[in-house]
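Hey, resending since the last one bounced:
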Amino acid sequence: MITSESVKSAIAAQIISEYTDPTIYKEKIMGSISKPCFFIMLNDIKQTKKMNGRYEWAYHMNVRYHSTETDLTTYENLTSVGTTLMQLLQYIELPVFIGIDEEGDPVENDIPVRGTQINFRITDSVLLFFVTYRITIVTNNSGPVMEGLEFNYTED
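The structure tokens again:
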């Protein structure tokens, strides 16, 4: 099952693929943080009902990047990181449960999910990056299906 934690982990994996040993926080931190660092947070999830037992879940994500305090080119650095994230987070790989193997272990397959509404801004020397991932969920309860339709036509 896809969860907000699996979306956060997929985003973190993309960031790790580009940056050497980044500090990534996925939860709120009480106390000091180690800069430079990334925060990956879920803004909200929106569910939209589609047809035949299908739902679209939109995960609205926020990635914050805090640069070092002594960085004299903070704005240039934050802009560079924002531009890199726009390319990195266009697609993420999400693990999806597909069944059980012969030993009884769960089997997962990674599916690519495209990011939409990608944008960033810089506020108070912090990069605020936003992206939405839309995932279609199919339920087993699709409801009744029309079996047939009778049509009686008469000429007047």
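The longest strand covers residues 106-123.

Sorry for the duplicate.
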